[in-house]
Write a structure and sequence with these properties.
alpha/beta, Aspartate Aminotransferase, domain 1, binds pyridoxal-5'-phosphate, pyridoxal phosphate, Ethylene_sulfur-biosynth
Length: 442
């Protein structure tokens, strides 16, 4: 006789909450399984996730041919927070490209399996449960999960209105937000700056970085600078006076802004500038806060980079010629591809911003929103109208990210990842065009 099975065992309260709070990611997970590829030509073309596929052929050939593992790579290695090899490589990278005020040393660095993992740890170590991290809107949507799912902190998006988003005046909105939060008895632990900016594709000017430093000092906050797109720079012929990338590492925050440098931490990774999201390597640089770095030791193994990925990135980082060639070629391809895409949108009369960095074009698709669904029911909100267009893109076989996911308050704005291999880009743009043609208001 068959035995009667018990009811399913329950998850912990944390587990149940994790399931509930990440349910919205299930859609993304199922999209990832159905992506377009040569083997899956009917799959969805990805213009929604920040992946740069322009250097895939070179990376594949080079890394497949040159993975050289040492005996040490089959052990836990020589450092809890990474390896002496990758620390050396990263220190060279920062000292070569980020113009630090004082040289970045191996002992300033912690590595982890992607910036996502590092943000999780950073929020865990800098914030207590319920603490807020302030950031200008719109902002990279991944931050929300990264700081909340385990650390129970949350992002607090600050609306800076119609002021140029890279200007120091935006900090006035942060001051108001801070007063409001204080009056509500809420605590902030950090201010987050994404430079270059995701999703808007600009570099912050130096005086704005200084304003952030003063703000952090005034309110006793950490300043977490995500510089993951630092080297994804390109010229845009429509922008005569491009603001160059300035790393916070190159700012003497104490002398120039009276900010304690122990507040300042930089995130960087292999995913974007090195076109290798899948290898899962990221790092944190904290030059003047050894306590913070040491606080990672206990949990560093939760996010330790696989030695194979460490070896692959280190190879690029430790060879100046290889590194310079890679960065230069990637930038040339970004430049050619963005020009191709901007021309494409211009030819079709689609308004958009003029990025000079990162992987994105911010499209203004208000002209393609509908007021009613197929059954004639009127949409009640801008969000419903945006979602309707987003679904139309998906049905046509493309994933373009809706601006509301980045807490944008502008209706009809979408983030388009342009750095897609030309063969795939052309397939995707054709599909995009079919939706635009069907939707354009006369
Ligand atoms: C600003 C920013 N930070 C962090 C990440 C996540 O990077 P990683 O792949 O290293 O986890 C992304 C990915 O899109 C990003 O845009």
């Amino acid at each position: 006789m068959a035995e009667e099975a018990s009811t399913s065992p329950t998850l912990s309260k944390r587990g149940a909450r994790a399931f509930e709070e990440s349910a919205h990611l299930l859609g993304l997970a199922s999209f990832l399984e159905t992506q377009y590829s040569n083997q899956n030509p009917n799959g969805v073309v990805n213009f929604g996730v920040a992946e740069n596929t322009l250097m895939q052929d070179e990376l594949k050939a080079d890394l497949n041919a040159n993975l050289q593992l040492q005996d040490l790579d089959f052990t836990y290695g020589d450092h809890m927070c990474g390896s002496t090899r990758i620390f050396k490589g990263l220190a060279r990278l920062f000292n070569r490209y980020f113009k630090p005020v004082s040289p970045v040393e191996p002992q300033h660095i912690v590595t982890g399996c992607g910036v996502t993992a590092l943000i999780d740890q950073v929020s865990h170590l800098l914030g207590d449960e319920g603490d807020l991290m302030l950031i200008a809107r719109p902002y990279y949507n991944g931050f929300n999960n990264d700081v909340s799912l385990r650390s129970r902190c949350s992002m607090h998006g600050v609306d800076t209105g119609s002021i140029n988003p890279d200007s120091p005046q935006t900090l006035a909105a942060f001051e108001s937000a801070m007063s409001q939060l204080e009056s509500e008895g809420k605590t902030a632990c950090a201010v987050v700056l994404c430079n270059p900016h995701n999703p808007l594709g600009f570099n912050y000017r130096r005086e704005t970085l200084l304003a952030y430093c003063r703000f952090a000092e005034k309110h006793d906050l950490h300043l977490v600078c995500d510089e993951i797109y630092a080297l994804s720079q390109f010229e845009n012929e429509k922008v005569a006076d491009k603001v160059p990338f300035t790393s916070i590492l190159s700012v003497d925050v104490k002398r120039e802004a009276g900010c304690n440098p122990a507040r300042v931490h930089v995130l960087y990774g292999m995913s974007k500038d090195f076109c290798a999201n899948g290898l899962r390597v990221g790092c944190l640089v904290t030059q003047h806060n050894p306590d913070f770095r040491n606080a990672f030791v206990g949990t560093a193994l939760f996010m330790k980079v696989s030695s194979a990925a460490d070896a692959l990135w280190s190879r690029l980082l430790l060879d100046d010629t290889l590194l310079d060639n890679f960065v230069k070629t990637n930038q040339a391809r970004l430049r050619a591809t963005i020009k191709y895409c901007l021309d494409w949108f211009e030819a079709r009369g689609v308004p958009c911003n003029q990025p000079t960095t990162s992987h994105f074009i911010w499209l203004d698709l208000r002209n393609y929103l509908r007021d009613r669904d197929n059954d004639g029911n009127e949409f009640a909100t801008d969000r419903e109208r945006d979602k309707d267009l987003w679904l139309a893109f998906l049905e046509a076989g493309i994933f373009v990210a809706a601006g509301y996911a980045y807490t944008s308050t502008l209706p009809g704005h979408f983030r388009f990842t342009f750095c897609v291999r030309r063969d795939v880009l052309e397939v995707g743009l054709k599909r995009l065009e079919s939706v635009l043609k069907a939707r354009k208001k006369t």
